[in-house]
Amino acid sequence: MTALTLSTAAAPGLRADAIVIGVAKGAAGPVVAPGAEAVDKAYDGKLAGVLETLGASGAEGELTKLPAPAGFKAPLVVAVGLGAEPGTKDEDTGYTAEALRRAAGVAARALTGSRKAAFALPVDSPGAVEAIGEGVLLGAYSFDTYKENGGQAKGARAKNGKAPLAEATLLGGKPRDAAHKGAVARAVAVSEELNRARDLINMPPNDLTPAIFAGIAQAAAKEHGIKVQVLDDKALTRGGYGGILGVGGGSAATPRLVKLTYTHPKAEKHLAYVGKGITYDSGGISLKPAGHNETMKCDMSGAAAVFAAVVAAARLGLEVNVTGWLALAENMPSGSAVRPGDVLRMYSGKTVEVLNTDAEGRLVLADALWAASLESPDAIVDVATLTGAMMLALGSRTFGVMANDDAFRTALHEAADEVGEPAWPMPLPEHLRKGMESTVADIANMGERMGGGLVAGLFLREFVGEGITWAHLDIAGPAFNEGGPFGYTPKGGTGSAVRTLVRLAELTAAGDLG
């Protein structure tokens, strides 16, 4: 991953391949953002005019390259748009963390193949240092493992590609300041784990079976002092995990339930994170039509997010206990696959009539939610690429938040907003529960078609222990980006919800969630 350093050096004397500056969209044209004063001075204070002549406006995501002024040791200046210039109101005095994060991501991606770049973006706080660092590390991400020469030594280039930006120096960051160093350390820990989640999501399903995923989790747990327990298909059978076994029964790659436990000696609260880990989803007997299978390697994005968040919490040493549950299975059609009409006895003892085998995520989550509930955590959050209905409701960049507690739903929504992950609170209408009534079982795995994302949330609620605060994040839209890259978000796996889960753990550790 790109190396991050801090420097108080002036931009003109810094040896680098490029100097990155910010430009905002002002009322009368582009405005050079703070941090680039030395660069602007070298253009005789006319840099904004030069950029406007080149067509720059300062709009978010816009990027303009121009030759560096005489006397600079870097040959190139890269101006990246920050969006609207901050206003004069007291509550609007600086660039938001998300604006800095996105701008840094755009620049880092544009500098693929470069050895070193200096980022002269606005730095007025440790938070700005962290945001720029995250943007660089997430924007520079590249998944090259399966390309010729990819995944070899650090800095190796794929045959027809370029290596990611090797080093980024954040100008204005103070290398001896504890707060600034801490901001970089947090950016590195969170970004490395989020990029690990992206790697898992992007892996082809023939190389990421439930057993292989479990092995990766075991290796990371050992490295970071996390306790791990893996239940294989035999242990799941002995334990009565009917949901996970039912979904995984049609595949030669047998299912797993992985429990990751991070504890802190001073922790007073316990969070449980539960992730849907369908390593490939064919739909099972209710086979998906052509055109809907090609990206279904991403159906384990929830488990990847939970895995990354638990490891990040451990790396940050947060004073909160966090347990991660990865419900891993491959949903395939075969003679041993669960059929529409089958009844499964879940780990909780409830029975479920399976009306559609492509509504499998809620079945594996139900078992994991009950397992998490038995430990009586202070709160449970499950994360899943659960329903196409949520994508229809919120689009491809926003995840839905449902909960059995309004205050907790609001807290999660605010945490997501704080870290720059678009989310939206969704209801759990009680009248939709009636549609899941079954004549042969306690509940069916399908209900009314309209409001299908909410129906799924209501189903999951049935498997949360009484009195436990719970929330459900449906990340079906933002988990996998099928379009072009934007900001610090690449094409493919995104690592959606990782930063929200980490922020929730931080707030809980600080006692800010009650």
- Give me the side-by-side strand order of the main sheet: 8-9-11-10-14-18-15-16
Largest sheet features: 8 strands, mixed
Low-pLDDT stretches are none
Overall pLDDT level: 95
Number of strands: 20
Q: Portion of residues in helices?
A: 25-40%
Q: Which secondary-structure class do the elements indicate?
A: alpha/beta
Q: Rounded to an integer, what's the Rg over CA atoms? A: 24 Å
Shape summary: elongated
Spatial separation of the terminal alpha carbons = 37 Å
Oligomer: single chain
Strand content: 15-25%
Question: Helical segment tally?
Answer: 14
Note down, in words, how this protein is organized.
- This protein is an alpha/beta fold and 514 residues long.
- Helix content is 32%, strand content 21%.
- The protein is built from 14 helices and 20 strands.
- It has helices spanning 37-42, 47-53, 97-110, 126-139, 178-202, 210-223, 233-239, 242-248, 301-316, 361-373, 388-394, 406-419, 452-461, 498-509, and strands at 3-7, 18-26, 29-32, 63-67, 76-84, 116-120, 167-171, 227-231, 256-262, 270-281, 321-331, 343-345, 351-353, 379-384, 399-403, 423-425, 443-444, 469-474, 480-481, 492-493.
- A hairpin with a 5-residue loop joins strand 12 and strand 13 (351-353).
- The chain is elongated, with a radius of gyration of 24 Å.
Keywords:
single chain, 514 residues, alpha/beta, eight-stranded mixed sheet, seven-stranded mixed sheet, 14 helices, 32% helix, elongated
SSE layout:
Elements: E1 3-7, E2 18-26, E3 29-32, H1 37-42, H2 47-53, E4 63-67, E5 76-84, H3 97-110, E6 116-120, H4 126-139, E7 167-171, H5 178-202, H6 210-223, E8 227-231, H7 233-239, H8 242-248, E9 256-262, E10 270-281, H9 301-316, E11 321-331, E12 343-345, E13 351-353, H10 361-373, E14 379-384, H11 388-394, E15 399-403, H12 406-419, E16 423-425, E17 443-444, H13 452-461, E18 469-474, E19 480-481, E20 492-493, H14 498-509
Parallel strand pairs: 1-7, 2-5, 2-6, 6-7, 10-11, 10-14, 13-17, 14-18, 15-16
Antiparallel strand pairs: 2-3, 4-5, 8-9, 9-11, 12-13, 15-18, 19-20
